[in-house]
């Protein structure tokens, strides 16, 4: 048995033992979520072991390097290394000495099914190396019922009972790229749940040490799983609504932002912003998890399905708009500005830019993609599409410029600069409301559902 009953420790005792290294923390998966978690606990003063099956990621962490563009992580890694409180490895057995094991591995969607391979592997590894009294904390967003099902099977194989021999906590990640550490520490309350009262007691005390915005305890793991899915579904549906409304406003020649701001002055209106679509590994995926749960109990979630279709179709909508405005795209050069799925982050996972590029290629355009933060990309390379961080190179000879990502640097573009770099007078299509129309006089300019119109 573990020398400490984690569920019985008061917050002060838990804090003291974590800082003294008597309670070690392991983080399985050193991607965005895992690295941020490891950094938070290192900043708290705990002793942390990071585990990632990719040796290159583990080696980078051992050099004090976290994910690119993620503030505070690398600094925490370097401080932990210098104080001998942090190590990273691809050997999962190294986590056996840690009493609290965070599973921060990816859960994805492929071939119309949730992919749980990484989570199952991490759960089995953590459970097989657990001592009596240890705790496992699951972080990924998953369909309702997944955490308990996987944990129960792994515990049975290891000869353990949940909430007795092993504590099981589900606390979904609530972070955004580019601010992950502060999201955990300051911005959002931590949603926590447990397999039973002992697990929940530890969850409340553990997160109470680092989550300054507070704790939201849930009645069950399943309720917490549903809560996290609801967050993503709400945003996907709201963005789809904004895109639908913006199409109407665009056709009417009105300014969507003016109308949106007025509508949102009413406290029950929370219309989001329209755009090229949604990306990242959260909003495009979580609605699919909900659909899987709904269909499993005989419910067809029509609104969720319609919203997913609407957002997924936006790249095609914009490519068709550009084709219409230009009278055809065959043989034209299109410069797509922004590969990242969100402005000012170096993360292109499931970015709608990929679908926009495919649609432009399908219509016969030559395409080059610019992003100031992303240097290489295998997906674009597979399309034989150039990616550059040189704006002049991207715009040179361009007949069409499409703002696909709201990187702040694009807000400074003006007509003179665009004409200088492109060598002509291209059509500029702003899908993200980044550009200022007053700076683009004399150019053909279309700001989706905004003030700018082709000149």
List the helices and strands and how they pair.
Elements: H1 11-20, E1 25-28, H2 32-44, E2 48-51, H3 55-62, H4 73-82, E3 86-89, E4 100-103, E5 108-110, E6 113-115, H5 117-128, E7 135-138, H6 146-158, E8 167-170, H7 180-187, E9 190-194, H8 197-208, E10 215-217, H9 221-252, H10 256-263, H11 286-296, H12 302-312, H13 314-326, E11 333-337, H14 352-362, E12 366-370, H15 378-382, E13 386-388, H16 391-395, E14 400-403, H17 415-422, E15 427-430, E16 444-447
Parallel strand pairs: 1-2, 1-4, 2-3, 4-7, 7-8, 9-10, 11-12, 11-14, 12-13, 14-15, 15-16
Antiparallel strand pairs: 5-6, 8-9
Helix pairs in contact: 2-4, 2-7, 5-6, 9-11, 9-12, 13-14
Commentary on this structure:
The strands form three sheets. This protein has an eight-stranded mixed β-sheet with strand order 3-2-1-4-7-8-9-10, with helices on both faces. The chain has a six-stranded parallel β-sheet with strand order 13-12-11-14-15-16. The chain is 42% helix and 14% strand. With 455 residues, the protein is of the alpha/beta class. The protein has two domains: 215 residues, 3-Layer(aba) Sandwich (Rossmann fold); 135 residues, NAD(P)-binding Rossmann-like Domain (Rossmann fold), CATH 3.40.50.720.
């Amino acid at each position: 048995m573990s020398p400490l009953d984690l569920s019985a420790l008061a917050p002060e005792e838990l804090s003291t033992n974590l800082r003294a290294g008597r309670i070690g923390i392991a983080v399985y998966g050193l991607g965005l979520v895992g690295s941020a978690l490891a950094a938070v606990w290192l900043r708290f003063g705990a002793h942390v072991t990071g585990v990632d099956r990719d040796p290159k990621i583990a080696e980078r962490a051992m050099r004090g390097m976290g994910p690119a563009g993620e503030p505070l992580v690398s600094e925490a890694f370097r401080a932990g290394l210098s104080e001998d409180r942090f190590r990273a490895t691809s050997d999962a057995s190294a986590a056996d000495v840690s009493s609290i094991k965070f599973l921060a591995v990816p859960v994805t969607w492929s071939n119309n099914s949730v992919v749980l391979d990484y989570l199952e592997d991490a759960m089995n590894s953590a459970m097989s190396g657990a001592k009596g009294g240890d705790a496992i904390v699951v972080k990924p967003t998953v369909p309702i019922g997944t955490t308990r099902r996987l944990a129960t099977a792994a515990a049975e194989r290891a000869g353990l009972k949940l909430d007795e021999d092993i504590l099981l906590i589900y606390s979904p990640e609530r972070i955004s790229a580019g601010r992950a550490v502060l999201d955990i520490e300051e911005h959002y309350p931590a949603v926590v749940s447990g397999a039973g009262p002992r697990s929940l007691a530890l969850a409340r005390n553990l997160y109470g040490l680092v989550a300054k915005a507070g704790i939201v305890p849930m009645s069950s793991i399943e309720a917490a799983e549903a809560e996290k899915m609801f967050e993503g579904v709400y945003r996907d549906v709201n963005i789809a609504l904004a895109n639908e409304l913006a199409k109407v406003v665009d056709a009417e020649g009105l300014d969507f932002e003016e109308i949106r701001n007025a509508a949102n002055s009413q406290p029950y209106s929370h219309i989001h912003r329209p755009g090229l679509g949604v990306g990242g590994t959260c909003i495009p995926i979580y609605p699919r998890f909900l659909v899987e749960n709904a269909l499993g109990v005989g419910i067809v979630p029509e609104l969720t399905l319609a919203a997913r279709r609407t957002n997924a179709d936006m790249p095609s909508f914009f490519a068709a708009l550009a084709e219409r405005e230009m009278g055809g795209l065959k043989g034209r050069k299109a410069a797509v500005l922004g590969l990242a799925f969100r402005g000012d982050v170096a993360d292109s996972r499931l970015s709608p830019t990929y679908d926009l590029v495919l649609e432009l290629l399908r219509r016969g355009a030559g395409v080059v993609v610019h992003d100031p933060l992303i240097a290489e990309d295998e997906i674009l390379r597979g399309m034989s599409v150039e990616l550059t961080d040189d704006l002049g190179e991207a715009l040179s000879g361009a007949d069409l410029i499409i703002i696909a990502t709201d990187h702040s640097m694009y807000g400074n573009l003006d007509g003179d600069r665009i004409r200088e770099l492109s060598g002509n007078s291209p059509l500029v299509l702003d899908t993200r409301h980044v550009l200022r129309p007053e700076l683009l006089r004399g150019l053909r300019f279309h700001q989706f559902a905004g003030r700018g119109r082709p000149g």
